Amino acid sequence: MSLYLSAFLRREWRHLIAIAPSDRPWQMPVAAALSVGLPLLVGAYFGHMDYGLISSLGGLVFLYTPETPLHHRMISLIACAFAMSSCYALGIISHFLPVTVILSLTFIAIVVTMLCRFYRVASPGSAFFIMAAAIGAYSPSEILEIPLKVGLMTLGSLLACMIAFVYSLVMLRRRPAKPIEPLPPATFDFVVFDSIIIGCCVGAALFLAYLFQLEKAYWVPVSCLVIIQGTGLRAIWIKQFHRLLGTGIGLLAAWGLLSLPFNDWSISFAMMALSLIVETTVVRHYGFAAIFITPMTILLADAAALDPNAVGPLIEARFLDTVVGCLTGFAGSLCLHDPRFRATAGAWVRRVLPGARP
User: What domain count does the chain have?
Assistant: First the structure.
């Protein structure tokens, strides 16, 4: 027994410290940092950091830039920009009917995951679309502010598209574009069934957050989604372990960072630095990148109303969000990879959905 435990711990330690190779050019993290940071700098200049944060969220669209020819890149990014703004708008609208937040985010998760799987959207997949909807759903707003906030999100997304255009012009001179691969046939299990289960797990995670009375639980669905979208149970376990460990360390770093006397300008530059580090390291070691994802996300969602005297409760809430989301996502992944569950639930879904084919 002790030999088995020792071998298990050594194997897990090797996975924990393993650094994956990457051919990501340094220009990509720099462009990503500009996409996130420029709206914040504009908001700091005009004294409206809350506006800058919304547009900065739209700047995450840049991360969906494919390595295909220029025309395909821009079409893909414009579609992602529209999807990001739409998800944010639906999230804000659901905020005014709190009883519909869980149903609304579940529906968004199902539909967005279906679209991302049908069109084979690469990593980060549906994660940022769901995050935009969740942040919108848990952001205090007045009903007349909806057009303004959705417009700010759209402007941030379009700025990211412009930065991606310039970035692509530079990079296509240095690296040949990858060919546009034809979409593989869409299967019911991969596109429809998996998306429904993933969306239901997101809804279950939000329901648990409601039962535990977690305030502003925008990080719960994202944590759930990141874990459940793994390609296999082994990959899911490793990613969950990395995420929990990285988030725990990241919360300690966020505690120290948020205790500093921040102003709008320092927040803007801190966000750019965090984005640069995350996009440089996430392809090499997810757990290490999660250390910096945590304070970046907290600033992105809460910097506009950040109270230096309430840092402790905020850190605690984000940790509970991560635990609830990861555990729910792991439970959902067990169902997704269980043949008996897939056979039983898949047959039921086919009967319920009109037009579904085996």
Answer: 1
Residue 331, Cβ density class (10 Å: 0-12 exposed, 13-18 middle, ≥19 buried)? middle
**Contact between 291 and 201 (Cβ < 8 Å):** no
Instruction: Judge whether 357 lies within some domain.
Output: no
Backbone angles phi, psi at 48, to 5 degrees: -130, 75
Q: If DSSP codes are grouped into helix, strand and coil, which group holds residue 18? A: coil
Q: Counting runs of H as helices and runs of E as strands, what totals does the chain give? A: 14, 0
In a domain, 159, yes or no: yes
Provide the whole-model pTM: 0.88
What sign does the CA torsion over 97, 101, 105, 107 have? negative
- Whether residue 3 is contained in a domain is answered as no
Q: Which of 330, 257, 245, 329 is nearest to 289 (CA)?
A: 245
What is the Cα–Cα distance from 347 to 174, expressed in whole angstroms?
50
33 lies in which domain range?
26-352
Judge whether 168 and 72 are in contact, CB under 8 Å: no
Cα angle 59, 62, 63 (rounded to 5 degrees) comes to 115
Q: At what angle do helices 194-211 and 219-228 cross, to 10 degrees?
A: 140
Helix-, strand-, coil-residue percentages of the chain, each rounded to 5 = 80, 0, 20
Per-residue confidence of the chain (358 residues) as pLDDT tens digits? 566 666 655 665 566 666 777 778 889 999 999 999 999 999 999 989 889 999 999 999 999 999 999 999 999 999 999 999 999 999 999 888 877 889 999 999 999 999 999 998 887 888 899 999 999 998 887 888 999 999 999 999 999 999 999 999 999 998 899 999 888 888 888 888 999 999 999 999 999 988 888 877 888 888 888 778 765 555 666 666 666 677 778 778 878 777 777 788 888 898 999 999 999 988 887 778 888 888 888 888 776 666 666 677 777 888 888 888 888 888 888 888 888 888 888 888 888 776 555 4
